[in-house]
Each structure stands twice: as C-alpha cells, then as structure tokens.
Amino acid sequence: RYFHFCKLPGRVMGIRLLRFTSVVIIVLLLVAGALTALLPNIKDDKMPNSRREPKTQSQSALDSFTLIMQTYNRTDLLLKLLNHYQAIPHLHKVIVVWNNIGEKIPEEMWNSLGPHPVPVVFKVQTVNRMRNRLQNFPELETKAVLMMDDDTLVSAHDLAFAFSVWQQFPEHIVGFVPRKHISTPSGVYSYGSFELQNPGFGNGDQYSMVLIGAAFFHSRYLEDFQRQPEAVYALIDETQNCDDIAMNFLVAKHTGKPSGVFVKPVDIRNLEKDTNSGYSGMWHRAEHLLQRSYCVNKLVHIYDGMPLKYSNIMISQFGFPNYANHKNKM
Amino acid sequence: RYFHFCKLPGRVMGIRLLRFTSVVIIVLLLVAGALTALLPNIKDDKMPNSRREPKTQSQSALDSFTLIMQTYNRTDLLLKLLNHYQAIPHLHKVIVVWNNIGEKIPEEMWNSLGPHPVPVVFKVQTVNRMRNRLQNFPELETKAVLMMDDDTLVSAHDLAFAFSVWQQFPEHIVGFVPRKHISTPSGVYSYGSFELQNPGFGNGDQYSMVLIGAAFFHSRYLEDFQRQPEAVYALIDETQNCDDIAMNFLVAKHTGKPSGVFVKPVDIRNLEKDTNSGYSGMWHRAEHLLQRSYCVNKLVHIYDGMPLKYSNIMISQFGFPNYANHKNKM
Questions:
Q1: Which residue in A196, B151, B233, B309 has a CA-CA distance of 20 to 30 Å to A53?
Q2: Domain total in chain A
Q3: Where are the transmembrane segments (chains A, B) (predicted)?
C-alpha cells in the first residue's frame, strides 16, 4: 500500500521531468539560434579578382591574359598583328571577334603557317556590331583580358609592364589611351582628349576614362556588361560607338573610384595606313567625337548620374626606356 | 496520513528540480561559451588609415598632413625651409625635431616675424640621435606625415601631388627618393641607388625602398617603430644612419608589399651649400654607403628574413609639368 501510494507522485514527477527536458532543448535551440545569428556572413570582396573564380582555372590562366581583338575589313592588318602578339609574354590565348559577316575566316592559312605558340580562336559573328567584342566568351579562361583594336600595335615591352600594373590594380581598366569628360556650366557634358582643358583642374591635366581599345581589364566586367540596361545596348548599336565609354561607366560604378589607370606607353602605333583595304576606322567619321559627347550625356541619363571620377596619375616604368628616366632634366 | 506520505516524495522531487535547473544553467553556459568562441574577433585592418583613429581628429586633420623636420647645425637653412613650407597646401602643423643639444630654439625670432599660417612646434631633444625624428609625437594629429630632411627643398606642387598619391596608397611610403638592395651570389646584400644594376632585372630598373627624408607615410608607422627589437635601435644609434632603411623594413613587413611608391619629382633641390655653418650632411662621410649595406644585412638578421620587395612603378602627374607630357617624343 505504501509503495502503491508512492508510485503516483513518482509518475507525476516523471511528467514534470519530461516537460523540463523539452524546456531545456527549446531554450538551447533559442540560445544557439540567437548566437548563430551573430556569426559573420561571408562578404563580397570588392576586388573582382577574388570573386567567382572558376575552380577549373589553371595556374597559367591566373598569371596570364587573353587577348580579345575585334576585326572588320582589315584581315591583312589582323594577320600582321596576330603574328606580332604571338610573341607577347604571359599571353594565354587570342580570341578574334570576326565582324566580317559572311566572309571566310583565315583559319586555314593561319594554321598552314603554324606552329604558333599561342592558340587563336576565331569567333564568327552574325551581325557587325561594335559591342560584339564585349561578350562573355566561353573560351575566356583568364581573369585578365587585353583588348586591342585591330589597327593598333603596342610594343611587347609596354604590354608586359602594363600587365604587371594591372595585377596591382585588377579592378581598374589599365591602358594606354586616357580620355575625359568636362562638365559645362549648362550642365551638359562634353567628351574630349588632353586638348580639352578644364579651368577647374588647376595645374596639369586629368582623365576620367581609359579606352578599352588598348587596355587590360578584369574578365568579370564582361559578365557585368551582359547585365546592363537595354538602353545602353541600344545606344551603342545606334551609334556603332561608345562601347568603351559604357565600360568606363560600368567600372566606375562598380569601384566608386576612377575607372582607369593610365600607363604611359613607350611605343604605341596606329597601323591603319598599312591596310590594303583602304578602310579607315570609325573614328574618322565627322560625327565621331560629337557622338561620344552625346553618349556621355545619354549614359548619365540612363544610369541616373555621372559615375566617372578624375585621376591625374600617370604610371611609367622606373628606369625604362632611359636609364635614370626618373632624373629630371631641369 | 496520506498527505503526510506524499510530502516526502515531494521534497525529493524539489531537490531533483533544483539539480535540473542547475544542469540547465550549466549547459546553457557551455553552449553560450562554445558559440561565442565562434564569433569573429575584431581583425586588424591591413589599411593603416582605418585603425586607431583618435576620436578627437578634426576633419582638417584627416585631409591634411604634418611636416616633421629634424634639424642639426643648420638653423639658417631650417628657417629658410620653414618659410617655404608655410605655403604648402594641406599642411596642418610643423614639428621641428631640435637636435642642437643645449642650443636655444629660434622660437622667439620665429614668432617675432609672424604671423605664420601654420603652427610650428619645436621639440627640444636631450641627445642628438638620428632616430629622434621617429618618435610618436603627441602633437601629431594627422594620419599623414611628411618627413623632410633639413637640407632638402621640394616644390609645393610636387608635395601637393604626392599627398594626393599618398591618399590613394596610405599604407605605403610615398616619396621622391627610391633606393634598392641587391642580393649577391654570396648571399650578402648590397645597398645602392639606380647606378647599381641587377642583371636579373631585365629591362628597366627597380627599387625596394623609398627614403623617408622626402616622403609621406602614415603616422601609425611611428607608433609601430616604438615596438621594434632593441637591436634595431642599437644599430641606428651605433651608425647614426639607416633609420630610413629600418622604416622600409617595417612597412614591407606590415604590408607584405613593396614598402614604397615612387613619385617622380619635378623640382627637388639640395640646399646644403646654402648653409653658413658649412656643415655638410652625414651622407658625405666616406663610410655612409658601406654603413647602409651593413645595415641591410644586419636588419635581415634581426628580422630573420628579407621583407623588402621590388617595384618598378614610377608615378608622375598627368599633363604636368608639360602639357601632354604623356605623349612620347619618339
């Protein structure tokens, strides 16, 4: 009887124990949840080179670059340039954007004159568009892109140095052709080169863009270009111009800094005259510069602001081309 | 009787409840402790300008710099330089490190010829030491320090540009005098200037130090200098030399990058000849350069490795001093 009696309270206690254990578990979960919420979430690194790294990239793909060259109506020049650029150090691959619609690519001839140290891929296009060169090509395996116009020759030495500079400024467009915008009292922007002076600058000059026709930039910017407002593509196609200005807007918006780093070239040449096609570049058109001012203002409207920032930094190689070129001859 | 019976188990249960509650608390503490250990501990930001910001800093102290100039036996030159540097833009304060032991500071005369736009503080020293200028002066309110030798004049324009460059490279020594070390096959290092060529360099030249006798650097490096091995101070005092080499070691170790960024000066002058004291700088001593090679090897031994890295970047101002100085005259 006594024992019988005492089972009841025992059971009661068992139930309370059960309630307690569940309370313990719930509290533990709450505490765990609360503290876990305080853990850091992985932040996006601002430096583009440290994000979205394909696992497949070989080491060589990391310390080398891909040359992207768009060509139109200058196949003789193209072949001359392809020959020249084959000898560039750190060159991983060449992607030729073939804008000669319906025309056969010179691949057969190229291969017949091989072997060549660096593979060349011809990307046949269906429409002759300025922005064809700004695709996110699947053949592109390197972080670094060197984009060159098909009439411009830059010395191997300048390219090797500029690539080493790009490796120190991977989020910028590192190139040889600086340009700038000027804001006028009317609020309308004007596009120009070093001849166009801004009284506000004080001593020296400044630039707010580095053209991509002779520049290194990060391949992730080609991905980013695919996600721009339709109006940007429309503007570029309407003018067959300004894709380089758009890229500078894109980079300046991404970094919040000047889009470009200007490297002073020692030897850069325009080979236009050398082509037998007699074709001369788009920039000879009377409206070329006017179009580019027009584009700057359009892009400011599309992006709802002026992201371009000024820089007055010019980088050259210490002790080259002249021994002691850092000594001033004054 | 029945009730009497059931009190006993009740008390027993009370004790068990008590035990349980304490178990709960202990478990909670353990879990809390474990999860808290997972929380991020505040990391030292690599960029020195974003650490240890005195709350008191005025905005002007953030976008301005302090000139620190050590002087010995050239008071006439000092006054000439003080007059020159009074006109430099963004100059917040001048700290004169007075190494003329026992000699009266020219404060009275300086003030009698006032007013002066920028305050000048004379720091009277008790021992004439090279490294007196590397103290963490309480009067120093800016992040940026401009350190100048007392026989060197750099144009206001060069200083304004170099300061804008430093603001973009705040963790580096940004200055006008590059130097380098060379490793010889014997494993012994040699110190030199641009005359000393390293066959390994290929084209052009490189530097691994930027001297602090005409340079901008972050004030936090003066704090860091107070925490160096005693052997470093002993080496500097024994040679009355090499404090600038030690600073380059310190910065290179801190950043893991080249310690300096070289800005090509347009107008830098040595005014040594102008002093009436006839005193000529330490670097005229026959042993000066030998001492500096000696210091490099000693510092490698003290720091148990060679932290200095090479750079071949030379920065100049776009469009200055010549309009279109970025055009190559080739």
A1: B309
A2: 1
A3: 20-42
